[in-house]
Amino acid sequence: MIKTFLLERKGWIMMFLFQQLIILFFAYIDPSIPFFSVLYFIYLSLLAFLVFLVFRFRKETAFYKSLKEWDTNLDVSYLKEPDSPFESIIEESIEGQTRQLRESSLALRSELEREKDELMSWIHEVKTPLTAMHLMIERLDEWPLKAPLMYEWLRIHLLLDQQLHQKRISFIENDLSFQSIQLETLLFKEIKVLQSWCIQKGIGFDIQLEAEEVLSDAKWLSFIIRQLLSNAVKYSEADDITVKSYEKNGQVYMEIKDRGIGIAPQDITRIFEKGFTSTGKRHDHASTGMGLYLAEKAAVPLLIRISVRSEPESGTVFTLAFPKRNDAVKIISM
């Protein structure tokens, strides 16, 4: 801030020094003027000018320091009171802009909230005929006709579910309810949703649950597991998907392992990016690239770490590392 102040006031400083040099010059060329007396006067003037600069620095930079340290949260009450007309002009301009930004932000938030509510209402309305369609498909006896219809129904169901959670995820902190969850019950429920798809592709499940219970939010944990299971089914063919859980150092882990086409090495670091749909054989034109992105985003407030390891043509393993029980209890108590 000192350097900035000196650069701002360099005109003053240069003018003062120029005046002192002129006085020295006239004292030097005019014998009638006592040179050493003038030199002493200039010395005193320099001291007075330095004191003046220090005073002005403290007075003029207080407002600008508060402006520099302002965290731009649209609250101007943290700014120092202006001490000059120019500072008042700056403060008035900032207040006007922040007021306008606040009003625009509230209007946009209200619009987004309205659109979110309308979309969620539409999704819930669509679920009613979708459920009726599922019951009608279930009554079909001809498997060659029933299988593709069930698959298309499931695709619509999963896309609607993904869209619903995508809209809710911005407010996930207000939607969490931590409780003890039986992994077997939750897992079997999600597998049952994918049952027709798995039968069509000849996929089975090998369940090995050593750790049977975790402390988490049932709705959002179901969503995360749903994304990982549907991803495993999508890229597998006529093979088993292994799901196992175990406890290590007081922490529960769950692994979802498929034996599908795997993930290319250049893609492994990008699979959780928004909209990423792979560059290799996994590329699917119908894929939205949102499933894993939303799963990882939902895992953060649940204190769940999702990691992945994969080899092309050998399969992929997704691992969920649940928080230690004490860490989860801390969240509940907050």
UniProtKB/TrEMBL annotation:
Look up the record and give one Gene Ontology term from the biological process aspect: cellular response to phosphate starvation
Q: What is this protein called?
A: histidine kinase
Protein's UniProt keywords contain Thylakoid: no
Topology relative to the lipid bilayer, per the entry, is: Multi-pass membrane protein
Taxonomic lineage from the root: Bacteria, Bacillati, Bacillota, Bacilli, Bacillales
Q: What is its EC number?
A: 2.7.13.3
User: What residue stretches are annotated with the Histidine kinase domain?
Assistant: 121-326
InterPro entries per the UniProt record, alphabetical: BphY/WalK/GraS-like (IPR050351), HATPase_C_sf (IPR036890), HATPase_dom (IPR003594), His_kinase_dom (IPR005467), HisK_dim/P_dom (IPR003661), Sig_transdc_His_kin-like_C (IPR004358)
Q: Which Pfam families match?
A: HATPase_c (PF02518)
- Intracellular or extracellular location(s): Cell membrane
Q: Which UniProt keywords apply?
A: ATP-binding, Cell membrane, Kinase, Membrane, Nucleotide-binding, Phosphoprotein, Transferase, Transmembrane, Transmembrane helix, Two-component regulatory system
- Write down the chemical reaction(s) this protein catalyses: ATP + protein L-histidine = ADP + protein N-phospho-L-histidine
State which residue ranges cross the membrane.
12-29, 35-55
- Chief localisation class: membrane
GO CC terms for this protein?
plasma membrane
Recall the GO molecular function terms of this protein's record.
Answer: ATP binding; phosphoprotein phosphatase activity; phosphorelay sensor kinase activity
